Amino acid sequence: MTPYLELLKALKPSAKPTFHALDLFAGCGGLALGFESAGISTTGYEIDKDAANTYNLNLEGNCIHQELTTSTIFPKADLIIGGPPCQPFSVGGKQKGLRDSRDGFPIFIEAVRQVKPEIWMFENVRGMMFKNKKYLEEILQTLKGLGYEIEYHLVKAVNFQVPQNRERLIVVGHKGGYEFPDLIEHKYTAGDAVSDIAFNVDGNSKILTKSQDEYIAKYEKASKCINPRDLHFDRPSRTVTCRNLAGATGDMLRVKLPDGRRKRLTVREGARLQSFPDSFTFTGTETAQFNQIGNAVPPMLAYHVAKSILKYLKKEPLVARKNKQLELI
Ligand SMILES: C[S@@+](CC[C@H](N)C(=O)[O-])C[C@H]1O[C@@H](n2cnc3c(N)ncnc32)[C@H](O)[C@@H]1O
Fold first, then answer.
1. Are 194 and 282 found together in one domain?
2. Which backbone phi and psi does 203 adopt, to 5 degrees?
3. What is the dihedral sign for C-alpha 52, 53, 56, 59?
4. Which residue intervals of 73-209 are DSSP H helices?
5. For the segment 105-156, what is each residue's pLDDT rounded down to a tens digit?
6. Which of 13, 28, 76, 162 has most Cβ atoms within 10 angstroms of its Cβ?
7. What is the pTM assigned to this prediction?
8. E-strand spans in 96-210?
9. Which SS3 state, helix, strand or coil, does residue 114 take?
10. Pick from 206, 201, 188: which is nearest to 275 by CA?
11. Three-class SS of residue 44?
12. How far is the CA of 304 from the centre of ligand 1 (A)?
């Protein structure tokens, strides 16, 4: 077993969780796996049946298959976590921000308003800090108004033991005294994650056809691609997305075989690049499984964030500390 696969063994739901999280827009449970492994139990909410099934198959917590709305009533919890879908991204010029009913943020904010957790966190694509900066500011202002100190980090997953150049925005709201985890020096490569399985070819392998190879060559020439999009084993993978796992497009992730043929990634290879341990299995069609993987927060990144949140939750609440200080004066 490679050191990377050994490392992924840490990702398994803890037998003795000490705090409880509501995981909104839970997907297949990438975020939840990180939190459960750190010792925080979860309840998921997810609209997609296959994703909810995957969550229920692999995690200790229950994933409720339901569409969240701003009218959903939430139970008590110590924290709220989630990856709200952000519709204003694709609406072009007509951004309605928090008034857009298809957007996940009004639901996330409503959950925080109801539950008043000690701490909350959400994850989103990096573009939110740039293309949608105004909208992000509106969201953060609203959450600040609910009594939270807020910090945000543009995080590179490769700095948290994920063999991938994935960049994501992580925002944490707390009551004071939270510290974001330190970066981890050792970086893992795509080779660490998949070299023991990537060259296996059998009847199910998706070998690129001649015309696909020609299409890709044209695509790479037209986009002045310097690094062909094959997986490079000596470095982290490109960001794993639904599109480059499931779509037969020019930027799909693939492995160049020793005989020159190219093979599309399997579900297990995609899952490993996202830091899912091999014990985690996905349900639904192959496309549904690729979508669950591409949408997920890498569990190993989630694990490091979860540990920092656990440390915060285990500290005496700041309010209690301040009251004690006042008593001492
Ligand atoms: C980015 S994915 C979340 C990935 C997840 N955090 C993980 O780590 O695996 C967003 C999810 O929100 C779900 N979703 C979108 N709108 C929803 C709603 N109104 N209610 C519940 N789930 C919703 C989608 O089906 C999708 O699985």
1. yes
2. -60, -25
3. negative
4. 105-115, 133-144, 190-194
5. 999 999 999 999 999 999 999 888 888 888 899 999 999 999 999 999 999 9
6. 28
7. 0.93
8. 119-125, 149-156, 167-174
9. helix
10. 188
11. strand
12. 21
**Are 70 and 21 in the same domain?**
yes
Q: How far is the CA of 35 from the centre of ligand 1 (A)?
A: 16
CA 132 vs. chain centroid, Å, equals 19
Q: Which atom of ligand 1 is nearest to the CA of 33?
A: 8
| Residue 176 lies in domain | 3-187+298-328
Q: Read off the DSSP letter of residue 4.
A: H
13 closest CA partner among 299, 326, 240: 299
Q: State the closest ligand 1 atom to the C-alpha of 23, by its place in the atom list counted from 1.
A: 6
**326, 191 in Cβ contact below 8 A?**
no
CB 272 within 8 Å of CB 321: no
CA 96 to chain centre: 25
Within this chain, do residues 67 and 166 fall inside the same structural domain, yes or no?
A: yes
CA-nearest of 157, 77, 148, 150 to 117 is: 77
